[in-house]
């Protein structure tokens, strides 16, 4: 994917098994846990391009969050701040080759950033 592409969508859920049954039945999503990401089942749409995760719901995560791929999280977070947005979570490692961050736009919408490559093998 390229800089600016939406690469992942997290959906907050309270009951992971019920959510798996609901979304696989409703949309035909393939939902599975990936080794190393236990407790965070990931979904893939039938087009084999769209995907995301069923993330545990908590007080700070109550609505779906899209993640945008960027060339540099550090540069993008600097732009977020200079354009009036707010960094909610700085760059954090997912794997040795991938990172994420969260920011809030001018209207209070939360979006995630993704940089790198995550191997599911």
TrEMBL record:
Transmembrane segments: none
Top-level taxon of the source organism: Bacteria
Domain VOC stretches: 5-116
Family annotation (PROSITE patterns): VOC (PS51819)
InterPro entries assigned to the protein according to its UniProt record, in alphabetical order: Anthracycline_SecMetBiosynth (IPR052164), Glyas_Bleomycin-R_OHBP_Dase (IPR029068), Glyas_Fos-R_dOase_dom (IPR004360), VOC_core (IPR037523)
Name this polypeptide is given: VOC family protein
Originating organism: Oerskovia douganii
């Amino acid at each position: 994917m390229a800089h600016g592409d939406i690469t992942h969508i997290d959906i907050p859920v309270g009951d992971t098994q019920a959510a798996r049954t609901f979304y696989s039945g409703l949309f035909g999503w393939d939902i599975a846990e990936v080794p190393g990401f236990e407790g965070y089942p990931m979904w893939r749409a039938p087009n084999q391009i769209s995907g995301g995760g069923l993330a545990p719901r908590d007080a700070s995560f109550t609505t779906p969050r899209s993640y945008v791929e960027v060339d540099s999280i550090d540069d993008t977070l600097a732009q977020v701040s200079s354009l009036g947005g707010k960094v909610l979570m700085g760059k954090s490692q997912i794997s040795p080759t991938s990172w994420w961050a969260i920011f809030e736009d001018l209207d209070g919408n939360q979006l995630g950033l993704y940089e790198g490559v995550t191997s599911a093998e």
